Amino acid sequence: MATAPLPPKGPRTNRIGLQVIDYRGSKTTLCAGCGHNVISERIVDAMYEMGVQPERIMKMSGIGCSSKTPAYFMARSHSFNSVHGRMPSVATGALLANHTMKSIGISGDGDTASIGLGQFAHLMRRNLPMIYIIEDNGVYGLTKGQFSATAEVGAKLKTGVINDLPPIDTCILAVELGATFVGRSFSGDKKQLLNMLKAAIAHNGTVLLDIISPCVTFNDHEGSTKSYKFMQEHEEAITEVGFVPSFEEIDVDYEAGSSYNVQLHDGSQLRLSKLREDYNPTDRIAAVKTLMEAHRSGEILTGVFYIDTQKASFTEMLNLTETPLATLPERRVRPPKAVLDEVMQQHR
Ligand SMILES: Cc1ncc(C[n+]2csc(CCOP(=O)(O)OP(=O)(O)O)c2C)c(N)n1
Ligand code: SF4
Ligand SMILES: [Mg+2]
What pLDDT, in 10s, does the model give residues 221-278? Predict the structure, then answer.
């Protein structure tokens, strides 16, 4: 008896028929072992698994080793490498011109918390719908390893210089200023980082992810507080991060009461299993307090600290036309001469 032929074995594809290779970028020129490379790999995995159309993504960045990384993932997407610390204003302009695109911004701790702090604050405050990633190594990697504003007090450079200024916690700032999805992860925590990125793709509003990403060349030695070893010894997850995308059947295999189940914009579910009995990721004040207490006790907390799925995003608040401003024909964006003449007459 003839047996039915097996379906042809081809490369694995995602729900829009693309292979993982369709999400890759050029070969990295960063140092081997740099945490930033691992983050690029997770972005590729998350975008592939979520079935995001690469051409619908705009990759934005500033200046730094971290800001170079958009070249190393999603070569088919749009990309803009801006001036140091100025990515937020460029990203805001680009998204307002075309709010149907999805935006992912890659910054560094120097790019964000030093030169770019003012721009960062206003982006968070507006709840612009984008994913903003800080690849946080506590130093200016590109300019040979000076302390950045996220370095802990007492952290030591290879040269022996000790940092005596208090760090800026970008997660506390983001919660306080108005971002609606705020978390911290570690480049070495594959599962947590992947789930956080997938949930970030499904969220509508500003996502701030501060990802500890060791600089193996300038800040991975004894005395560093952003090294692989230090993170392995001090990372403490506040919530276990689970994610069920909208296109997968939602199982009910979780214990109500032991986890927060947050429905995201596209119907996906973010499941935050409580590792601390009383932690509520929808309470802004609790998030700030928990993060401040962690500084006092020397813990490096990871997980999703705060989420709000109700607040309107900046593009919703502006009530933009459905057709992106960038593609509206001139006759719709430019009033005719007669109307302009009338306005001039009125204000004589
Ligand atoms: C206006 C301006 N000032 C200073 C510099 C020099 N500079 C380039 S990258 C950088 C810091 C990068 O640090 P970070 O953002 O943490 O990125 P990393 O290299 O650590 O990933 C500085 C100060 C610059 N390029 N432009
Ligand atoms: S200098 Fe540091 S941050 Fe820059 S590529 Fe090398 S390891 Fe990464
Ligand atoms: Mg840095």
Answer: 999 999 999 999 999 999 899 999 999 876 656 565 677 889 999 999 998 886 777 7
Ligand nearest to the CA of 86: 1
What confidence score (pLDDT) does residue 209 get?
98
d(CA 48, ligand 3 centre) in Å:
27
- pTM confidence score: 0.94
**Residue 220 Cα distances to 39, 85, 134, 227, angstroms:** 17, 24, 18, 4
Cross-strand partners of 158: none
Residues 147, 215: Cα–Cα separation, whole Å: 12
What DSSP string describes 265-329?
Answer: TTS-EEEEEESSTT--TT-HHHHHHHHHHHHHHT-EEEEEEEE-SSSPPHHHHTT--SS-GGGS-
Question: Could you give the CA distance from residue 64 to residue 85 in angstroms, rounded to a whole number?
Answer: 10
Ligand 2 contacts CB of residue 64 (under 6 A): no
Kindly state the helix (H) or strand (E) to which residue 97 belongs, with its residue range: helix 87-97
Residue pair 212/184 in contact by the 8 Å Cβ criterion = yes
Residue nearest to atom 3 of ligand 1 (CA): 84
Confirm or reject: Cβ of 139 under 6 Å from ligand 2.
no
* C-alpha dist (Å) from residue 22 to 11, 68, 101, 266: 12, 19, 18, 23
CB atoms within 10 A of CB 321: 11
Collapsing DSSP to helix, strand or coil, 144 comes out as coil
